[in-house]
């Protein structure tokens, strides 16, 4: 893999399993990391885990709030003087419920983080990358960004929105040598999946997990490291001719679907 030494990386959702593991791999490659998350306590704990691997700073932020996004971008510039890579990863799952039973407030909350948060990140990071004439953005969507899934309509809508934002942004900044791609994980062994399993089958979360695993040809959930390795590839110059693309990381699920 291309050397990432001294590259400056922003990771939103940085205290979650995927964000934290991705940050760890970036640090192993010599990058400098700005870890962004809503929970200050989780950020502090993550920093303790990660700082032994390299230089990392933390910024508490609600990615759906414009002022918070401006702040984490400014902190990155103040501390590291640049932004080379942006893992636009923060997201929430929302409630498990049929569409007709979803409240407007719950819909708005999921969209504000998963779609508005991605939009705001792009809005304030891309100008810096354009000025530098280089950069890579990786937006986290989901396999739910490809198809419908009963019970999580706000989440599905938000992850479809990420695809549109990714493709549009990629077209708008390609002439400045800035790349924008999205990743689409299936079930990952994280807190979010445990929440979904319990929401879909409160009395049988383990049974629901087994049902999910049965539709994955590889027969298991992804681990955070599986996702992180793809992010590093898309962040590096090894993927220098890839932009506007959607990468499904799903254990073979897409092999039997459109």
UniProtKB/TrEMBL annotation:
<dbReference type="GO" id="GO:0008206">
    <property type="term" value="P:bile acid metabolic process"/>
</dbReference>
<protein>
    <submittedName>
        <fullName>SDR family oxidoreductase</fullName>
    </submittedName>
</protein>
<dbReference type="InterPro" id="IPR002347">
    <property type="entry name" value="SDR_fam"/>
</dbReference>
<dbReference type="InterPro" id="IPR020904">
    <property type="entry name" value="Sc_DH/Rdtase_CS"/>
</dbReference>
<dbReference type="Pfam" id="PF13561">
    <property type="entry name" value="adh_short_C2"/>
</dbReference>
<dbReference type="GO" id="GO:0016491">
    <property type="term" value="F:oxidoreductase activity"/>
</dbReference>
<keyword id="KW-0560">Oxidoreductase</keyword>
<dbReference type="InterPro" id="IPR036291">
    <property type="entry name" value="NAD(P)-bd_dom_sf"/>
</dbReference>
<comment type="similarity">
    <text>Belongs to the short-chain dehydrogenases/reductases (SDR) family.</text>
</comment>
